[in-house]
What we know:
Shape: elongated
Number of strands: 2
Strand order of the largest sheet: 1-2
Number of helices: 7
Order of helices and strands: HEEHHHHHH
Mean pLDDT: 84
Amino acid sequence: MTGKRGEEAVGIQPEDLDSNNILHIRRVVYEGRVEELEREELLPLDSPEHAELIRRMRAVGEGHKWVFHNLRKDTPLNLGNARRRYLKPAAKRAGVHIGGWHDFRHTLQSKLRRGGVDPVVRAGVMGHSRVELGPEVYDKASLDEKRTALALVAKDLQANQGGSD
């Protein structure tokens, strides 16, 4: 729901979600190494739509150093293991094919664009330093969107064919 990369998500500690339901992205976990970010990113999760996510994050992280953790060692979750052990089996049961963690980011970018969210805000949600990165990497126009755009042009051209050449 937040559009964060897997490496950012597994780096979340319980205190990173403050009492105002602002999520502070302060670190990433990459190949088992914890790396502090030079600049933290803030994500407001204070809408009613986020209430269940907040409740679950607090419950999962309670009494642990990491919100998303290895149950036996209380270390950050290994993304490869999580995908193989949990995500893929759950997707298979649901009849959905999951290719990788970036599939979620592709979907989020597309939904935000189709929802009319400003490109600068989309870049902020995705954690991109450049506004152009989202459309370049994650988002492609659908066949229906292309059809609608081309129909607008055709309609305009037909209206201009009125009689004077």
